[in-house]
Design a protein that fits this description.
- The structure is a single chain.
- With about 230 residues, the chain is an all-alpha fold.
- The chain has one domain: Glycerol uptake facilitator protein (Up-down Bundle).
- It is built from 10 helices and no strands.
- Helix 4 packs across helix 8.
- It is globular and about 50 Å long.
Length: about 230
């Protein structure tokens, strides 16, 4: 059994890695001026980071790395209120640390500033309500897959589970990326927004994904908790 500081450290590290690689991929694409992998490269980078760190750290904390997943676990009483709060704090600090590190090390004028550190934003003429719906729907699938592929015994990680969750991130970014930037995770939007002080449409990336966290109780209503 791992203690609380170890679990929180795992959530910090996993969320740090996700924000570092996913936001960093956006900055790298800008630096290459479109000569990189485009939205596919960004999607694969984010998905692989989740798959790898879910496999590496899932047995410690459950590899949530996303407040939307945490709220699903809280609603279904898999974690208590204090645990959920602790996970959220660890996730937010991990993401913020990654965003500020990217800001410190990347070429500011060629990579960081033009894309505001990878801060997601809405496409032109794509309004907030459909953006919330798109973020909510894809995050719903993400949380649903998380619940469906994790064992009930403290959500011990399996390689297949980490891969499945990572692939949902990849698919979600391929679909939603051109329209919303595809945060699918409030921290993914908040951390670079804080580092770049760009807050446009920030509410979309909290409301949408947290609504998507309702996949947790819906999964339980349909299939019940899996036996330990």
């Amino acid at each position: 059994m791992y203690n609380t500081p170890q679990k929180l450290a795992a959530e910090f590290l996993g969320t740090f890695a996700f924000v570092f690689f996913s936001a960093g991929a956006v900055c790298a694409e800008r630096f290459l001026q479109g000569a990189g992998g485009g939205v596919l490269g960004i999607a694969l980078t984010a998905g692989l980071s989740i798959a790898i760190f879910s496999t590496a750290l899932g047995s410690i904390s459950g590899a949530q790395f996303n407040p939307a997943i945490t709220i699903g676990l809280w609603i279904t009483k898999r974690v208590n209120t204090m645990e959920a709060f602790g996970y959220w704090i660890a996730q937010i600090f991990g993401g913020v640390a990654a965003a500020f590190l990217l800001k410190a090390i990347l070429p500011r004028d060629e990579a960081w500033q033009p894309v505001l550190g990878g801060t997601p934003d809405l496409a032109r003429d794509f309004t907030r309500l459909p953006a919330i719906g798109l973020e909510a729907l894809i995050t719903f699938f993400l949380v649903f897959v998380y619940f469906a592929t994790r064992s009930e015994d403290e959500f011990n990680s399996r390689a297949s589970s980490g891969l499945a969750v990572g692939l949902i991130y990849t698919l979600g970014i391929l679909v939603a990326g051109p329209f919303t930037g595809a945060a699918l995770n409030p921290v993914r939007a908040f951390a670079p927004a804080l580092a770049s002080t760009h807050w446009a449409n920030q509410g979309v990336y909290w409301v949408g994904p947290l609504i998507g966290g309702l996949a947790g109780p819906i999964y339980d209503a349909l299939y019940g908790k899996k036996p330990a």
